[in-house]
Specification:
heterodimer; A: 604 residues; alpha+beta; 4 domains; five-stranded mixed sheet; five-stranded antiparallel sheet; 19 helices; 14 strands; 55% helix; B: 277 residues; alpha/beta; Rossmann fold; 2 domains; six-stranded mixed sheet
């Protein structure tokens, strides 16, 4: 067995060494990214989902498949060597390889994290154990698959289809079921041992894989899948192809007929409309009249925008009314483009901000159609401004409300604030952000007219990138503005002065205090007053972010609902952590949740 | 031994015995069942029916201990292409307690095999010679050779066969040489067996075979075949040497001796089976 082990090391060592270096580079990228994602071992989780699988697959191919495709098994057959020993040596070698890769990734992740936060060994082991269990199980699977000879590719196709069908047809969250669950978020957070069921399933797969591998090796004639190593006969090829074809047809029939929620209310869109159905799934507290009014206003916004920007046909827009969500929260459902744009919002709440929802819908449509190019910093203001502006065209009341929001914003318009638009918008929050972006685009419309602004937007957003040349030589917004004769600095000045003249700040005074707790831990105390008097209903938000994280992005901050002038943040933060802190209050006058304080800081 | 592969019958009641210390030439056409026989003997395949004894030990699956006493060389050498001859020697030596390192060096030198070149850099003939050196270095009791010289040039073939003869003579081991090259078998084998369609057609020492199978040309047809004779094919008859010498043939009859190749052709051609039956 020792001879076989060293033979494998000599034969595959260089491939595994090269892979190891690639893994290290990949892990380095993951570690950098993980700082922005949170979760002390999220880089390890990413590693296991990608490189861990690659390690096992390559291991199976090198150690098992090559032995029969290269016919060297015929040489092994002539030697006085039992097949069990050969198979066992190969399994152990593969296991050592995947475990070593996983353990090295774990150690590197642990070391990386300990540079900024203290991660005790116990916590680190919470990540190592599931990682090794997962790798062992997947390695055993690869080992068996390799021993299936000419049927191995069929095995992987069927396995992939099974997982896909589980997710698409069965609506089963694959990552939430064992054995995949063992490398889910709990591994990234590393705060508990894996669930007993996950451990058992992984161990069973490992052992069954090993036993099945030994049976395949020793049963029948020839060594190491010799009997299965030939090419498929034409009959087998036809049978496999037909089975897969039938599987695909069944699968596509099942997915096509999948039940969709009954969108009881749907807008009437003409046949040649550039937008599919626009529907609402009403929930408790949503009257038909209210729902109808909302989808009709969305339909007008979307159809006119898609026509104006000459976008290709949109699959549809759906809103699912969901009680329990905060009235200012609008969540996009992560679905594919063929399912349309789907949002969840608490439509029935009296404080629901319908302008906010409509803004988010238009924003999503434009950013989707441009493959997120619209989110680039130089044109993001135009995206936000156009999405805000489009909702309130010809709606005096809406325009007045957005002007008011812009005027109340604690951050003004300047060339600097526009150049760092993502940061500016984040500081302002959605409510004020919509306001200031509206003010800017409104000023632009005043200067060059709506038609010219739409043409500008079409050129910046709508032109599809057909090839790399288009992407490299795309038209830049500042150049286009100049072409239209717009002096941008003067435009910003005018917009800012209009904003200031429209009203003023709301008079809120939001502050925070850092309270050291000992052991390098700190708690945050928020306070909010208006015109000197404490405010009693508001929210404090806090989140920890990585050193390279420019904005809070999609991270959901921890939130405390205050019922007095002061409130303590729910989480405790460690020394050296980079913190995002904000205070939001429901402002009846502005009909939105206004961010009255926002700060980034590094804890001392 | 009987062995089927699906509907195809590879071995159909084959029976043979090889004596210790002899070189047994196993002649047959392609697909006659030679390789199947050798694969059963090395334990790679199992016989569906029959008894197989190797080195006096009855086997259904050749155990590791028995395999250590067997050296084998096949038509193609499937060595690890990245291993040099020396590395192969080192790798193989670990599986044989009887491995003789100096003998391996001597054999490779004798056969002119460069030990520092990787297997993938060696010609087919040199790889076969390396295979023979690897098979002989553990000093096996039984040497199984499955058409090893196919593809070798005449000089290399002669070297190969001479070495096998010498080793068998010196060590007293046994060699089982499967081939369809009659001249080489005639050159080295003590006894020869001819197999056709999985059945042993004739078996014996080469001089005995030459005395047993002859061509008879008659001037007029005989009313019946003389007792003790058997038609192999057409005018080729088979009988014991004693029967041949004791049988009086009519005047003008021509009894021609055959070469081993003629005998092989008479037995191995497909229509011979029907004629014999």
């Amino acid at each position: 067995m020792r001879r076989i082990f060293f033979k494998e090391l000599r034969e595959h060592g260089w491939v595994f060494s090269v892979l190891f270096v690639l893994f290290a580079l990949g892990l380095a990228v993951s570690l950098n990214r993980a700082d922005e994602e949170g979760g002390r071992f999220s880089a390890l989780k990413d590693f296991l989902m990608t490189f861990g699988l690659v390690a096992a697959l390559v291991g199976g191919n090198r150690l098992v498949v090559r032995e029969y495709t290269g016919k060297t098994q015929l040489f092994l057959e002539t030697l006085p060597l039992s097949r069990t020993k050969v198979a066992l040596a190969k399994w152990v070698f593969g296991w050592v390889w995947v475990s070593f890769s996983g353990a090295a990734a774990w150690a590197a992740t642990w070391w990386w994290q300990t540079r900024t936060v203290a991660v005790p060994l116990d916590d680190a082991l919470h990540a190592l154990v599931p990682a090794l269990l997962w790798l062992s199980a997947f390695w055993s699977l690869c080992f068996v698959a390799g021993l299936l000879g000419r049927y191995r590719l069929l095995f992987w196709v069927v396995f992939g289809l099974y997982l896909y069908a589980l997710d698409e047809v069965g609506q089963v969250q694959v990552m939430e079921t064992p054995p995949f669950h063992i490398i889910s978020e709990s591994l990234a957070v590393a705060n508990a041992w894996p669930a007993a069921l996950d451990v058992v399933v992984c161990l069973v797969i490992t052992l069954v894989g090993l036993v099945l591998g030994l049976v395949l090796t020793t049963a029948g004639e020839g060594s190491i899948a010799a009997t299965l190593s030939g090419r498929m006969t034409s009959r087998e090829r036809i049978a496999s192809f037909s089975t897969l074809l039938v599987g695909f047809l069944l699968f596509s029939a099942l997915t096509r007929n999948r039940d969709r929620p009954a969108f009881a209310l749907e807008s009437v869109t003409p046949k040649d409309s550039p937008v599919g159905p626009i529907g609402l799934l009403p929930g408790e507290g949503v009257t038909e009249e209210q729902g109808r009014a909302l989808i009709e206003s969305i339909a007008v916004d979307v159809v006119t925008l898609v026509q104006a920007l000459q976008f290709p046909k949109l699959a549809g827009v759906y809103v699912v009314a969901q009680r329990g969500l905060d009235p200012d929260v609008v969540l996009r459902v992560p679905l594919g483009e063929k399912d349309g744009v789907v949002f969840r919002a608490n439509v029935g709440d009296p404080r629901f901000d319908s302008l906010g929802l409509r803004y988010r819908i238009l924003h999503s449509i434009i950013s989707d159609r441009t493959n997120d190019r619209a989110l680039n910093e130089d044109r993001h203001w135009l995206l936000d401004g156009l999405a805000s502006y489009w909702n309130v065209r010809g709606n005096a009341e809406g325009r007045a409300l957005l002007r008011k929001r812009g005027a109340a914003a604690p951050i003004g318009l300047s060339l600097q604030s526009i150049a760092r638009w993502n940061e500016t918008f984040e500081k302002a929050g959605d409510c004020f952000g919509m306001g200031i972006s509206f003010v800017l685009v409104d000023a632009l419309v005043d200067e060059i007219g709506e038609e010219a602004v739409v043409e500008l937007a079409r050129r910046v957003f709508a032109k599809p990138h057909r090839n790399l040349r288009d992407a490299l030589f795309e038209e830049k917004l500042p150049a286009l503005l100049k072409e239209k004769g717009v002096d941008f600095a003067k435009l910003v000045e005018r917009a800012e002065s209009a904003r200031r003249n429209a009203g003023g700040l709301l008079g809120y005074q939001g502050t925070y205090e850092l309270l050291p707790q000992g052991g390098g831990q700190t708690r945050v105390k928020f306070s909010l007053s208006k015109d000197g008097a404490p405010v009693t209903r508001w929210r404090g938000l806090s989140a920890s972010a990585g050193p390279w994280q420019a904005g809070i992005g999609d991270t959901e901050p921890a939130r405390v609902d205050a019922r007095s002038g002061d409130a303590m943040a729910t989480s405790t933060y460690s020394s050296g952590e980079r913190l995002f802190l904000a205070i939001e209050v429901d402002e009846p006058e502005l009909k939105c949740s206004a961010r009255v304080m926002q700060e980034w800081l590094v804890l001392p | 031994m009987r062995r089927r592969f699906g509907r195809a019958i590879a071995l159909d009641g084959l029976s043979l015995a090889v004596q210790r210390g002899e070189i047994y030439g196993f002649l047959g056409r392609n697909g006659a069942g030679k390789t199947t026989t050798l694969r059963v003997l090395t334990g790679v395949l199992r016989a569906d029916a029959g008894i197989v004894e190797v080195l006096g030990q009855q086997v259904t699956k050749v155990p590791v201990e028995l395999k250590r006493r067997i050296g084998s060389v096949s038509q193609e050498q499937h060595f690890y292409p990245w291993m040099s001859g020396r590395e192969l020697g080192r790798f193989v030596s670990g599986f044989y307690p009887t491995w003789d390192g100096p003998e391996f060096e001597r054999l490779t030198k004798l056969l002119d095999v460069p030990l520092d070149k990787r297997a993938m850099e060696l010609s087919g003939g040199t790889r076969t010679k390396l295979g023979l050196a690897l098979a002989l270095a553990p000093r096996p009791d039984l040497l199984l050779l499955d058409e090893p010289t196919t593809g070798l040039d005449p000089v290399a073939r002669r070297e190969f066969n001479d070495l096998v003869s010498t080793i068998v003579k010196e060590r007293g081991c046994t060699a089982f040489l499967s081939s369809h090259l009659v001249d080489e078998v005639q050159q080295v084998a003590h006894r020869v067996g001819i197999i056709q369609a999985g059945m042993m057609r004739i078996e014996g020492a080469v001089p005995w075979l030459l005395e047993s199978v002859k061509r008879v040309k008659l001037l007029a047809p005989l009313p019946s075949l003389p007792p003790g004779f058997e038609v192999v094919r057409g005018d080729v008859l088979r009988a014991t040497p004693e029967t041949w010498s004791a049988t009086p043939w009519p005047e003008g009859t021509l009894v021609e001796p055959l070469t081993l190749e003629d005998i092989f052709l008479a037995f191995a051609r497909t229509d011979a089976v029907a004629t014999a039956a």
